[in-house]
Design brief:
The chain has eight helices and 16 strands. It has helices spanning about 1-10, 15-20, 70-80, 100-105, 130-150, 185-195, 210-215, 240-250, and strands spanning about 30, 35-40, 45-50, 55-60, 90-95, 155-160, 170, 200, 220-230, 270-280, 285, 295-300, 305, 310-315, 320, 335-340.
Length: about 350
């Protein structure tokens, strides 16, 4: 495919997203098997198989600009689609979330974009910021995609600021007025293929990107944490081979693992959020070390946070802390406390 290879020699997905060269926006690149590849906006590429269906898939990375491994995985995935190494069987939207933050090698520019979905970007405190404008663009692009193809599945890929006792884990958003539902067997198989070892069930609706797609389109959406933040060039992508193959399988509508005889996948640890720690005062303290790993364990009665307004002590026999961050602005989440809901 000389023309397609020439395109790749000129601009990779990352280069096209961070530079000024969009891949023929509004024009389709046609592959030998009839698949069309179209740039919809900067960092937003749509893959359309020749046989149309209503099984839309969204894969996103770079919602936080310094989380580079997932960005590199989607760059490789698009390259392999263009070169015919992956057969596209589902309408797929690939998104590199925050080009300006990616270019600056920063988590965000002014505001944490992964708190600005569900229309939060329209609030006065955020309106007009680079992060809010990008969140608005992504919402519009996903709406357009969902209106054409439906949207039934979304994986928003991240890496974490800190180490983690459980390196790879997925979070399932909570929808309004719906009970927490156990992750389906299909998605357990997908996560097993990815190397994900834990599932976290959110306890209330949120304004993250995966929550936006779950709440708006009723899609099976997940935030997937794949390890620790590293700079471009420092990621060992061979460590992500299983994750990459699983993502390719979703694009090709293939699940690789074979379910066991009893149709249960019991090697994934499951947690529910039992408390959200919010920084509610300038004197707020999160009582963990700066380098505390995700899934740090606490026993009943231990104090985890305190401020002049509140304190939190562990209510369950054991609880686990993820995303501890003492440096967030007042009013934002400083951590999530989890309780186990299954046993191996």
């Amino acid at each position: 495919m000389p023309e397609n290879e020439h395109l790749l020699n000129q601009h990779s997905f990352i280069e096209a997203t961070l530079g000024n060269n969009l891949w023929r926006q509004s024009q389709a690149l046609c592959l030998e098997d009839g698949t069309k590849i179209m740039t919809r906006a900067k960092g937003v590429v749509e893959l359309l198989p020749i046989k149309q269906n209503k099984r839309g898939l969204l894969l996103s990375a770079g919602i936080h600009g310094n989380e580079t491994a997932p960005i590199e995985l989607l760059d490789k995935l698009l390259t392999d689609c263009i070169l015919g190494r992956i057969v596209v069987k589902r309408p797929t939207l690939l998104i590199l979330g925050h080009p300006q933050a990616i270019k600056a090698e920063k988590r965000f520019v002014e505001h944490n974009m992964n708190r600005l979905f569900m229309g939060v970007h329209e609030r006065k405190a955020f309106r007009g910021s680079i992060d809010a404008e990008r969140a608005n663009i992504l919402e519009l692009q996903v709406k357009r995609f969902a209106s054409r193809h439906s949207l039934i599945e979304h994986y928003d890929l991240h890496t974490a600021i800190r180490d983690s006792t459980i390196e790879r884990f997925a979070l399932q958003p909570k929808r309004e007025h719906e009970p927490i539902t156990r992750v389906s067997e299909l998605h357990r198989l997908v996560f097993k293929d990815m190397g994900v070892n834990a599932l976290v069930y959110q306890h209330k609706p949120a304004s993250t990107f995966s929550s936006y797609t779950s709440r708006t389109f009723k899609s099976d959406s997940y935030t997937v944490e794949l390890g620790k933040v590293r700079r471009f060039g420092e990621n060992d992508l061979e460590r992500y081979t299983n994750t990459y193959n699983s993502l390719c399988g979703r694009v090709s509508d293939i699940t690789h693992s074979v379910p066991p005889q009893d149709h249960q996948i019991e090697d994934i640890t499951e947690f529910e959020v039992c408390h959200e720690i919010v920084k509610d005062d300038a004197a707020f303290e999160l009582l963990v070390s700066e380098d505390a790993a995700n899934f740090k364990e606490f026993e009943q009665g231990e104090m985890v946070s305190r401020s002049p307004c509140s304190e939190y002590t562990v209510q369950n026999e054991r609880e686990f802390l993820i995303f501890p961050n003492n440096k967030v602005p007042i009013g934002q989440r400083a951590g999530l406390m989890l309780k186990r809901v299954n046993r191996r």
